[in-house]
Amino acid sequence: MVAAAAEMQGMSPYEAARERNVQENKRKMEALNLRHLSAVIKEAPKTPSPLKPKRRRIIEEAVVVPSPPRRSRRLAQLPEVKYAEIAPHSADRMTRSPRKPADLIYLATRGTISMKARLEATRKAEELESQLDPEIPSFVKAMLHSHVVRGFWLGLPSHFCDTYMPKQDAIITLLDEKDEEFDTNYLAYKKGLSGGWAGFALCHGIQDGDAAVFQLIKPTTFKVYIIRAASDDGSELDE
């Protein structure tokens, strides 16, 4: 009957089917009396749900009882030392040690070093190397700013390290012309001298532009000969 009425109103079959579903749902809602139930719920008084009473936490001020300091068994029988009573007088406090001679060498300057002076120092070093025993491995190293002023990292020739130097990190001893020994750290993967080289360079006043001959007299010992570079005014620093 609804379908016939829908068709009479010019509805499509889809719209007619939807209209039938709407009417069917209305009949079901009336059968369940949902409208009356929703009205009852709206008119019902709102009562708050019962909540548990909150308990207020009373925090009392804590009393800290100082405990005796923990001491080892070896010191337990000794009297306690009160450092405030034995604080040194201002006049007796440790003072800074005076600057070492090596530091004075580090701060010393000798003027500008020309390229000609650098090459001349390297030439003299190579000449000195030619007079050494050819059976003992050696090489010449021209000193740069990074070797003796900033960083104090001395890279060694790669081919020399591959042939003669240890394959792992080791302590390399530097022997100066007075047979004084200085230990340095050799880093195998970087092929150079790190810790200890700064002390050797400062103690001997090696500066930018100088040259040195390194002679490997033992597997981990270099004999070092230092050649000074002259400054532009013709002066040359000696040890």
UniProtKB/TrEMBL annotation:
> Could you tell me where this protein is found in the cell?
Nucleus
Where is it mainly found?
A: nucleus
Keyword field: DNA-binding, Nucleus, Transcription, Transcription regulation
Q: Can you say what this protein is called?
A: TF-B3 domain-containing protein
Instruction: List GO terms (cellular component aspect).
Output: nucleus
Judging by the UniProt lineage, the source's domain of life is Eukaryota
Pfam families registered for this protein in UniProt = B3
Outline the extent of the TF-B3 domain: 139-230
Compositionally skewed regions (Basic and acidic residues) per UniProt: 16-26
* Region listing for Disordered, in residue ranges: 1-26
A GO molecular-function term, please?
Answer: DNA binding
